[in-house]
Specification:
This protein is mainly alpha-helical. It is built from 15 helices and 5 strands. The strands form 2 sheets. Strands 1-2-3 form a 3-stranded parallel sheet. The chain has a two-stranded parallel sheet with strand order 4-5. α1 links the parallel β1 and β2. α4 packs across α8, α8 crosses α9 and α10 packs antiparallel against α13. The longest helix is centred in the last third of the chain and has 29 residues. It is globular and about 70 Å long. Bound molecules: adenosine-5'-tetraphosphate. InterPro entries: aa-tRNA-synth_I_CS, aa-tRNA-synth_Ic, Rossmann-like_a/b/a_fold, Trp-tRNA-ligase, Trp-tRNA_synthetase. Keywords: Aminoacyl-tRNA synthetase, ATP-binding, Ligase, Nucleotide-binding, Protein biosynthesis. Pfam families: tRNA-synt_1b (PF00579). It comes from Neonectria punicea.
């Protein structure tokens, strides 16, 4: 059996893994913060770099949703990825649950993962809307906290490790998950020998940096697919009219003129961030605030609307075309993605099963 290096080696081609939950049509935050980079990687990375993008449906059920809705969201997520320009011949796109080895590796990693580490992670706390200092020693929290939500970073680690990912592009809020994946790999390698590759965070060096896009209705929280207010987010498939209406109703403030101040002016700063992320001249939000210092919020919103409409141009049409053209094309892409992802996962699982004695 081929012995693969236990570290992100310079000799092996890079493997870049990332995922998105099918919890709704992706929004502007998903696009600016992640998906747009997935597309750019196809052009910036050498041909031998493996790009693996997963629609992580098993993660989506940590906050249960109706089965029909999940089925629809999975299909829509696939169509959305293709519509933004992910090329299924260049990248592997697949649904996580189509590759059961992800769950198998999760179990194996769970046997060497530390509960203490997991309990300090922030995502389960934000999903339950409890403070960062919370622990499950608190009975009211323990009764609401499901095992899947608590342990999902182990599944996320398995997603990454099973494909021997050397790099994972993530925003700042996700970096602790990569650290945890490294911890899982280290624990496993310590127990069974150096078989798993330790992934690194991929720092993207493209023109537009990764940003956290905030909600339009509450700019102190991040834009999110599952927030109940639809006008809190711009979907990448919204029409120009919908985009205009949502930005027009975005919460700002009554301070005259423009300034970039995320603490005191979160609404205006969010709009400047969005404007900057589509700015052809690569101007940062502070520069834009200086250049547009005399604009009113209404005028800023008009500029932001134009840049978002132009930035998302064509995605809506391609998305609708994919979803209305019949099932054959999406089925075929899904089947091919599953085949490639299973092959990639199996390479690692053979090593893992042998090492563990299964
Ligand atoms: N508001 C955001 N700004 C920038 N990046 C964002 N991402 C999510 N929201 C923003 C990034 O998008 C990628 C895919 O996210 P995900 O679907 O896997 O999970 P999430 O972070 O939980 O996204 P949502 O939209 O908030 O979904 P729900 O409502 O279901 O929880 C990730 O790289 C994420 O950082």
């Amino acid at each position: 059996m081929q012995k693969l290096a236990g570290k992100a080696s310079a000799v092996r081609p890079r493997v870049i893994f990332s995922g998105i939950q099918p919890t709704g049509v992706p929004h502007l935050g998903n696009y600016i913060g992640a998906l747009r980079q997935w597309v750019q990687l196809q052009h910036h990375e050498p041909r031998e770099t493996k790009l693996i993008y997963s629609i992580v449906d098993l993660h989506a059920i940590t906050m249960p949703q109706p089965p029909d809705q999940l089925r629809r969201c999975k299909r829509e997520a696939l169509a959305a990825l293709l519509a933004i320009g992910i090329d299924p011949d260049r990248a592997t796109i697949f649904h996580q649950s189509s590759v059961p080895a992800h769950s198998e590796l999760m179990w194996i990693l769970s046997c060497t993962a530390s509960v203490g580490y997991l309990s300090r992670m922030t995502q389960w706390k934000s999903k339950l809307n409890v403070s960062e200092g919370s622990t499950f020693a608190d009975r009211t929290i323990a009764s609401r906290l499901k095992l899947g939500l608590f342990s999902y970073p182990v599944l996320q680690a398995a997603d990454i490790l099973i494909h021997r990912a050397t790099h994972v592009p993530v925003g700042h809020d996700q970096q602790q998950h990569i650290e945890f994946a490294r911890e899982c790999a280290t624990n496993f390698n310590h127990a069974y020998g150096s078989h798993l590759v330790l992934p690194d965070v991929l720092i993207l060096d493209f023109k537009a940096p990764v940003r956290r896009v905030m909600s339009l209705t509450d700019p102190t929280s991040k834009m999110s697919k599952s927030h109940k207010l639809e006008r809190s987010r711009i979907l990448i498939t919204d029409s120009p009219r919908e985009i205009k209406a949502k930005i027009r109703s975005a919460l700002t403030d009554s301070i005259p003129g423009m300034s970039y101040d995320t603490v005191n002016r979160p609404g205006i700063s969010n709009l400047l961030d969005i404007l900057s992320s589509f700015d052809a001249g690569g101007r940062n939000p502070e520069q834009l605030a200086g250049e547009y210092r005399d604009l009113s919020p209404k005028q800023l919103k008009e500029l932001v609307t134009d840049s978002v409409v132009a930035g998302l141009d064509g995605i809506r049409e391609r998305y609708i075309e994919l979803l209305t053209a019949g099932d054959a094309r999406l089925d075929q892409i899904e089947a091919e993605g599953t085949r490639k992802a299973r092959e990639s996962a199996e390479e690692t699982m053979q090593l893992v099963r042998t090492a563990v004695g299964l």
